Structure formats: structure tokens, C-alpha cells
Amino acid sequence: MAARPADQAAAPFTPRADFSVLTASAEAIRRELGKVIVGQHELVELLLTAILADGHVLLEGVPGVAKTLTAKLLARTLNVPFSRLQFTPDLMPSDVLGTSIFRPNKGDFEFRPGPIFASVVLIDEINRAPAKTQSALFEVMEERHITQDGTTYAMQEPFLVLATQNPIEQEGTYRLPEAQLDRFLFKIHIGYPTTEEEVAILQGHHAGFGGTPLEVVQPVLTAAQIAGLRQLVRRQHVEPKLLEYIAKLVGQTRAHKSLYLGASPRASLALLNGAKALAALRGRDFVTPEDVQYLAPAVLRHRILLTPEREMEGTTTDDVVKQIIQAVEVPR
Fold it and tell me: From what superkingdom does this record's organism come (predicted)?
């Protein structure tokens, strides 16, 4: 076959939408986090995807892998209100949502907002609070408002919950209700660093950077800018075949012999919104099957339950998600 003439060479890809501001902002956030965090590139990409997709994130990993630090640093790159909650067994719903205080001089009650009234809320060790306190998060995580004494109070936008939990230690913890897990867009597993990354951590600590000064990380995006970028993401192009592909992937979780519980339509919406945000982060104005496959483990692993037999055999939900991805035909 004759070579294509130079003047007939394929033109470079030009997005139909301008993602230059979005990709530049994402790169700036990566640089700011890189001042303190070593490695964790996939984690940062998924966190940025969650911000653009307007979804909450559950971070799971053993102590010492920078779960809380990463969440705090990410919050610093956003010029929005931030609060942190340490969940404990004696925490009450009013400690999260707020409470009404009686004012004797006026003879009425005044509502004092709790720490949930922030744009980025970091909940440390979320599985240490009992069901009564966990239930306080149901309404606010899904509907972005709370109801107190018959009055509804809306959250300001953006509203993002970043929660951490330790998968190993079970003493003094409570299993999160499935309805609450379903409200998290992603569940991200944070593993150990590589040997090279750990050497870099040690070098930085030895050089005097061990105090992890948060002030070195500067804000990148405002609330108004985040809202604008989210609007851009929502207008992403998605082929009808891809919508069918997402539905088939999620549908397979409800029929798989290794699963006791499959994913709900909320998982399909999470895959769609996440894939649109990921494509935009990668500079594309259209979604590909690879975007959906990349996000499938983070979207599905906390929304499905293994049968007791498979659990005893050591099978993981990630194993089943991988099997489903391989079994469902990829649209072309």
C-alpha cells in the first residue's frame, strides 16, 4: 500500500469542546499535591474524576498510606470551606448535622449548623460510628440537604464527602449499611507504595520535609470554577452503544453466580458520570469503553456482595468485576 502523502496525513484530534482550562486546572492540582504526596497517581486521577462528577469517595487502606493527608491536601487545592470529622462510637447525629439552641431572650430556638455544612467534608474512620450516626448521612449525601425540626437546610455547592476506613482492624467498628455504601461514587483501595516511592518518602523526610506542611499547597479552583467545569463535563458526548454497554455491565452483576447482591441503577449512573468526567480529564469530548472499564472496579466493588461460598474461597469483588468486563462484548 502506498504511503499517504504528507498533505493528506490525518489531522490531529480537535475536541468539539474546549477542555484546556479543565486539563490545566487538573494538572495544577496534581502539581500542588505532588509537593507533599509521593506517587498515588491513580488515586489523584480518581479523586479529580469524583470532583468533576459530583460524587463522594470512600478511601480504604491500612494506616500510614496517606489517606487522610491526601484528602486534606486535596481540600486545600479547592478554595472552598472544609471541615473534618473524626467518627467515634459515642458520636451522635447532632454532632454531625448540628442542633437547635434555645434563646431565652427571644423565646425561640436557633439552629447551629454542624461540621457537615462545608463544601469538602473529611470523615476519618467512618466505620467507627454506630448505625444511628451513619443514618444522619443518608439524606445529606444523596439529596444535598438536611431536615432538622421540620426545616430543610441546603448544602452549598460543591458538596463532597471524603471518608476513610481501615479494612484490617475490626474491633470497635461497624459495618457500613449497603444503602450508605451505595451513595459513594467510588470506593478506592490505597495500597503500599513501591520501593522507589518509599525511598523518595524517606529522602524527603530526611531532608527536613517530614512535618508535611500543608501550607505549601495552594488553592487552584474556586466554587464557581468547579461549577463551570462540571457543566462542561455534563455536556460530554456519549454514544448510544456505550449507554447499552454500561447497562449490560451493571446488569451482569445481578445475574452472576458468584454474587449474592448485584448493583442498582445508581451504579449505572455512577459509571456514566464518572466516565464523562474521566474522558474530560484526559482531554476528550467523548467517552470510550476503556473509560468505563477503567472505572468499573471503583464504581462496583462496594455495591456488590459475594455469595458465602465465593467469599470463603477467597474470591474478591474485584475478581468478579474483572470477569464481567471480560464477558461483556465491547462496542466498536
Answer: Bacteria
Cell 452549598 identifies what position? 156
On whether residue 219 sits in a domain, the answer given is no
**Any domain includes 120:** yes
Residue 182 and residue 83 in one domain: yes
**Structural domain boundaries, residue 243:** 236-332
Across residues 126-139, what is the average pLDDT?
86
What per-residue confidence (pLDDT) applies to 210?
Answer: 52
Is 248 inside any structural domain?
Answer: yes
Higher pLDDT: 193 or 183? It is 183
Three-class DSSP category at 151: strand
Residue 48 belongs to a domain: yes
Q: Are residues 96 and 186 in the same domain?
A: yes
Q: How confident is the model at residue 169 (pLDDT cuts 50, 70, 90)?
A: low
Query: With the C-alpha atoms ordered 44, 68, 316, 303, is the resulting torsion angle positive or negative?
Result: negative
**164 in Cβ contact with 124 (< 8 Å):** yes
How far, in Å, CA of 195 to CA of 292, rounded? 30
DSSP H/E element including 133? helix 131-134
Element (H, E) at 86: strand 82-86
Which of 9-18, 104-113, 193-202, 296-305 is predicted most confidently? 296-305
